[in-house]
């Protein structure tokens, strides 16, 4: 069909969106590129639709297409009630393109102006799509030929005197359904004698109203499970981790309330905790399946049944509270979006909180201090070991849920959990390879904070702490090092030794956690001078060195750095060995044969990187 035909069907709500569809996410530049392709006569892709019969309509929720999008206050598609006395056509694949056409030819797009306040409506002026009738687009990195642009009224006023531009609203082409109406447009815009402008108007009208450029493949089966499976396959491309976004839409279709709004609201709220997190809808939806005690927690169509979704919806408020407490605990442990190496760690923590019905008081209660420390130690250690939260995640989460259910009624069952992890090949047992891997961690890596926080539990990570170089990074300047001379005038450091010193600068043995104020005051002072100034008494200095596993004396010059580095490395090795001890051993569960793994987990295993 033609673009105009499709948009009229959208207008008449004959062409709509099933609630399984994701929300509109395209940017203005993507819309402009689609219109450029249309003007060139390029194909804009095929579409998959589903003819829904009256008896099936009542089993689903449907949305209308977005027309006036606003990044400030109109991001969500409108819910529509469809009469059950007629059939309709629902779009399974192609929503983003059709919505873009609808916005460009019938509606508007409001995005935030550069530097504007994100919480002020005037930072999001309404923009409509225009075509410059005076010629082709200026040279651009996208290779666009036609000059389309989203403009505000102020933009139009500012361009009124520019002879190189004559902005024509694309919406007028859609309104000019008949050729006679199209032929009146050039005169109305004062470009009737401009061949270029007339040709552009005629070209746009032809591509919108006449060319049958939209090709639909229509599915007419009424088996909802089959339709959902088709939708997931078409939209996911087989990428398992993208299923959550699609299956959230399926949940939306099956909840009595608005699942999409509930999940979006919870994600936004959780991510504002502490110094901020970056939890995705993947993680929160997976958390919901685990906390609701759904047996199979995989992202599969068969798990998003009406019964499971009803279970998830019924417990949503309580589960949301548990997730808030769990994220609060992660923040208390000093973690945030930049320092959290695996979002999935949230799920077992939340399940433990949920199982015991713990509230925010647990985070502060003196009676819970020992249990919180056990939980904190396990969280940080599991983030340190590579691959724990990678492949086989669903199987691991089910095992951890089982352990917490059976043994986590009064305290966090560290030993039992670590044994369950070991049976899944996720051991937290220390090895020489693990020690070397930890000691090679570098400044700026997310795992580095987790390691330091786990090695030095005296640090109150609820306060702001910085990862700091013990021997200042500023003193490793290659030119300065090359200028150092021995008494006889020969270079003190060879090029190779300078490279070696610089390579050690950012490694773990030269790093520590300092409070924000301490770190600012330290600057690039020599370590021994800073220590003497910060801690005047010998006892205070000794206590600081012991807390941070630092050798005595601290180095004063770069000549002493290598010796300091090796001694600190030995001290940290001892700490690492102690950190990974399991202090409450219990008999291992009987386990016969290799760990079970579902086919989709096996297939996905090669997609993860440690």
Question: Spatial order of the strands in the main sheet?
Answer: 5-3-1-6-2-11
The outline comes out as globular
Give the biggest sheet.
Answer: 6 strands, mixed
| Helical amount | 40-55%
Poorly predicted segments: 238-242, 582-610
Number of strands: 13
Strand content: 5-15%
How far apart lie the N and C ends?
A: 48 Å
What structural class should be given to the helix and strand makeup?
Answer: alpha+beta
| Overall radius of gyration | 31 Å
Residue-averaged pLDDT, rounded? 84
Count the DSSP helices. 28
Brief overview:
With 610 residues, the chain is an alpha+beta fold. Helix content is 47%, strand content 10%. The radius of gyration is 31 Å and the shape is globular.
Please, could you describe this protein's structure?
With 610 residues, this protein is an alpha+beta fold. It has a six-stranded mixed beta sheet with strand order 5-3-1-6-2-11. Strands 4, 7, 8, 9 and 10 form a five-stranded mixed beta sheet that branches. The protein has a two-stranded antiparallel ribbon with strand order 12-13. Helix 1 crosses helix 4 (95-106), helix 2 (28-40) packs across helix 4 and helix 16 runs parallel beside helix 18 (393-407). The chain is globular. Residues 238-242 and 582-610 have low confidence and may be disordered.
